[in-house]
Amino acid sequence: MKLRLIRRDSASRLAMFTAPVLALVFTCLASLVLFAALGKDAGAALHALLLKPFLSWYSFSEVLLKMAPLLLIAQGLAIGFRANVFNIGAEGQFIVGALCASALPVYFPDGDFPMMLPAMIAFGALGGTVYALIAAALRTRFGASEILVTLMMALIAVQILNYLLLGPWKDPRGFNFPQTVMFPDNALLPILFDGTRTNISLIFSLLASLFAYLMMQHHFRGYQLRTAGLAPRAALYAGFSAPRMVWLGLGLGGLAAGIAGASEVAGPLGQLQRSVTSGYGYAAIIVAYVGGLNPLGIIASSFLISVIYIGGDSATVSARLPVAAVEVFQGLLLFFYLLTFTLIRYRIEFSRKVPA
Amino acid sequence: MSQPALLRLAKVSKRYGTVQANKEIDLEVHSGSIHAVLGENGAGKSTLMKLIYGVEQPDAGHIYWNGQEVHLARPSDAQALGIGMVFQHFSLFETLSVVQNVSLMIPGKPADLAQKISDLGDQFGLSVDPHAMVHRLSVGERQRVEIIRCLLLNPKLLILDEPTSVLPPQSVRRLFETLRKLQAEGMAILFISHKLDEIRELCDTASVLRSGEVTGRVDPREHDARSLAQLMIGREMPNVAHAAPRPPREERLRLNALSHPRASRFGTTLEGIDLKLRSGEIVGIAGISGNGQQELAALISGETRAQEPGMIEIMGKKVGHLGPMARRKLGFAFVPEERLGRGAVPEMSLADNSLLTAHSRNMLSRGFIRRSVERAFTRECIDAFDVRTPGPDAEAGAMSGGNLQKFILGREIMLNPDVMLVSQPTWGVDIGAATAIRRRLLDMRDQGCAILVISEEMDELFEMCSKLHVLHKGHLSSALDAAETSPQEIGRYMIGAAT
Amino acid sequence: MSGLEFLLAGTLAASLPLLLAALGEMVVEKTGLLNLGLEGMMAIGAAIAFICVYHTGSHVVGFVAAAAVSTLIAMLFAVLVIAVRANEVASGLAIGVLGLGLSALFGKTYESLTIKGLPKIDIPVLSDIPVIGPTVLTQDIVVWLAVIGTFGLWWTLNRTKLGLIIAAVGENAEAARAIGYPVVLIRLAAAAFGGAMCGVAGAYASTVYTPLWADGMIAGRGWIALALVVFGTWQTGRVAFGALLFGILSLGELTAQAIGVGLPSQVLSSLPYLVTILMLVVISRRKSGAF
């Protein structure tokens, strides 16, 4: 018996939907085995991971809260990924966005001007964009790999954050905790549903998804980006500027991450603190890929990953699962997704060797 | 026949997905014979060779070696029996030296191998410097390295896959002498080709392949090219209608002392290239790939920018500094030699591939793609250029070479260009499609388009062009009148014997 | 111990994790693959080695187990890239995340525990040489093995047929397959080698260099190792040289923090990352933009 991959005439629509579902099933099975091997109650763990978030309105609202930054960042990253621009340091752009946004309430703690919140978002957007564009400049000017540069810059961003929180931006009345002052009310995003923490950043994310959908699926610019990713030489032949694709891919990724960072400090955190480095930037990479780099798919995948985050929180209690289990689950999900993704463009043929 | 054949295939079949590449092939090859496998592109020749060389395994059928049935699971099995293969696109490593390349297949100390390489070179007219780096060798020399590497394994059967397609006429002579010497030593040679004259000159047996099946076994010396062609394509050889060329009119493309340094050590530096192309004429650039063809095409298309704007003029404008889109706006169109990944995006539908260069044909509205226009354009291209495909939604990557080439050519022609550059128009394309493509180009010429064709196929150039240049090591010859020159003269330019 | 002696004695050990991971990845890339998951493979190696050494007390067991588990993770990458032709970047990231997650999962209960490192070996005669004897030439066994191994790798890649085969597969896989080399197997073996080297690198970091396990202890070293391959232009000697530079840099950072230079510690901690970016800019300018 021999396995062979045969290219389909066109990508299979059916497989496009079944691949992620299959991946999720495989991931659950693998996690069950893993958790059981660690001596945990695997059933309870999976129940907590995948079902608990739906069992109360509050925990579901927390899922939506998590979803906002993941969705926003992933939409930005996916645009770059489709053009083969691999921004894997969105975490850094997210942090810088949070920093820039925080500068306003930190320096004007009772700044009573009405434009505070919009200005914060704008600062965050600008910070994230500029931080990402440094990598674009180094790539287009010197040919330095954006993969490594964006990642190194993410590691540097953490140090900048640490420096500010331990030094100049530390709340003088904060009992020496590494955090800034609490932001005033006019520096906080309005809450979407009363009694929850879900804020209007979810709306930003959905708008960004609409924008990404229109651009990537229906606009010539998105077509150029896709061409650059699928066949760089065809893009060159057509005359689409390669450097422009790099600037655009990184810039939009940084912009999205920056806004997400600003929304995080102006949202659930309400101040700048160390926990802002919670790994959204890295998780968004997984969200983008598991969503098939498709703007609509990413909405679904960001929801799924958010469920797992919130489920993971409750699993730490109910199944004594370490927080790292969530990371493992994400890693497995991406692994199995890439494995099943092949089905979209190839079909598997079993050929029986003829006994000669 | 008293002695069993050296190699015998009995009802060998191979299928790829829905394509039956080989169907119940019977074949016998004897020692001391030069046996041709004749067929056009896509007839299943390459698949058959892969089966014999153990690269692929048959789905059904038997292979016998000296009367014994054998199973060739991998190339090393075939090598162990005494089967050697010279590939069409050489399996040499450019960053390694000749000796290193040889030592990848042949055990032994480098010094000993170098000696053996020189000895074989003397014996069979295959001279090459053992210590040269492969990327510095000419195509002919590379082929010699491949043959030497095979001969060092002491093969009883040597397979050559389209060995002359990359050689200038003079080198073809030399290769044939080598092959005859090997034949005299008792070696069996399988000679894969679609060039009828060569087969008639060299081979004593020919098996003709069509759509994966053997359609004839003949002695090619007793048939003329016409009847061989009929066996090969199953009908009369199509003729290209030669309309009398009109006198050329205004100048549309001009290269002025175009020079460009090579981009990598595997590239070619272009030096002082002058060329004029006028409305209503087809000018050809002959020469073997790797002498600067790709570099020149990229410079004319704008994929590479020239060092000075004035080095390239399109429609009387200096365009050396402009990109491909700007040049298209001036009325330029380009069919590149690589269809997949350059002329078309494999993962995209034909409709989306129309957008690649034809977006200016009213396909965009404030930057948004107008799907209906895109589809209508694609549909028209498919119909007008006889592209065999399920429709505009089929992906480019799933199409045959000939069909995709017709699509790309059609797309570029539908841009109504004033100047067109076509690079290797019929590479890997079956005869039917090739004929259609040439006919289209002649039509374009008659409508006043200025066309520059870069090709390795000399017959094709003589068929279409009124003037020929030869590109050799980055230098372009002056224009030769196609009616007055000969393939032999062009061949001398191709190897640098004439300038 | 003076600052200079500290540098001389510690550089090799400090650069070892980078060196091993980078050399492993160099071989992987030479066969035409690109595995971005170094960070994760080093992390899982570090965690597994620590756990094994903690329970068995044997560094041999720790190193072997680390190499084995990291190889296993590398094989997941190989399955994605070779068997189902998945996107290389995404596949590397996937196993990277998986490795990091698993290391945190397994290592959770071992945080803040301690084990013994490896003793430095006094080699008679060598250790009597003034200045460098007691510093550069007094190292633990792994360092010596790594030094020998680096020379061995250089020899293999530049002087043996295996090296030629690896170069051939990397340059033109299609041709290598056509002349009969099992390209898939060779790439698989290279990926496994890269995984094993990352495992050993992680093991050294967590059981010898700083004998403790902490989540995130690899701290970007996998990514720096990746950059070192580019910096070293895929040549053993240059990659080793780059690793040594980073070894010195990380010790310099420690020294500077100890004696309290006027810079915030975060600036010093950022230094390796900044230098990596600088290095990429300088090197890539000469070469093509391809990773």
Automatic annotation (TrEMBL), chain A:
Domain of life of the organism encoding this protein: Bacteria
Keywords linked to the UniProt accession: Cell membrane, Membrane, Transmembrane, Transmembrane helix
CDD domains hit by this protein: TM_PBP1_transp_TpRbsC_like
A GO MF label: transmembrane transporter activity
InterPro entries named among the record's database cross-references: ABC_transp_permease (IPR001851)
Subcellular localization, as worded in the UniProt entry: Cell membrane
UniProt topology in membrane: Multi-pass membrane protein
Location (main, coarse): membrane
GO cellular component: plasma membrane
The protein, known as: Sugar ABC transporter permease
Organism from which the protein derives: Marivita geojedonensis
TrEMBL record, chain B:
Domain ABC transporter, first and last residues per copy: 7-236, 253-498
Pfam families assigned to the protein according to its UniProt record, in alphabetical order: ABC_tran
Keyword Ion transport: no
Any one Gene Ontology molecular-function term assigned to this protein's record: ATP binding
Record carries keyword ATP-binding: yes
Matches recorded under Gene3D superfamilies: P-loop containing nucleotide triphosphate hydrolases
InterPro entries: AAA+_ATPase (IPR003593), ABC_carbohydrate_import_ATPase (IPR050107), ABC_transporter-like_ATP-bd (IPR003439), ABC_transporter-like_CS (IPR017871), P-loop_NTPase (IPR027417)
UniProt cross-references to CDD domains, sorted A to Z: ABC_Carb_Monos_I, ABC_Carb_Monos_II
Keywords of the record: ATP-binding, Nucleotide-binding
Domain of life: Bacteria
Protein name according to UniProt: ABC transporter
Naturally occurring in which organism (per UniProt): Marivita geojedonensis
